[in-house]
Amino acid sequence: MGFYTRFTIAITISAASVLSLLATVATAQDIKSYTRANLDEWLRKYPAAKPDFKPGDVLGQKDLERMRPFVPPGYLEQLNFPEFKMKIIATRDHTPRIDFMDCTEKYQAQVKLNSDGSLANHLCGQPFSNASFDPGDPQSGLKAAYNFDYRWQNYGEFSLNFLFVYDHFGGKHGSQPIMVEPPLEDWTVGVPYTSKLPGDVSRYYGGGGAFERTAGSFYERLYFSHLAPLAYRGGVLDVPDASNFFWKEFNGFISPYDVRGEVIINYRYADPKRADDAWTYDPKLRRVRRVSVEVKSDSVAGTEQTVEDFYSFSGRALSWNWKFLGWRDLLCVSDPKGDYPSFYGPNGQIADDVWSLRRFAVVERTPKAPNHPYSSVVMFWDAQTWAPGFAYSFDRNKKLFKTWTLQNKWSEDFKEFAEFNHGMHDSTLQAEIVVDVQKDRATIFSGYGTGNPNISAEHATRLFDINKLEEAHR
Question: CB 3.0–4.6 Å: which of 29, 64, 153, 387 could bond 382 by disulfide?
Answer without folding.
Answer: 387
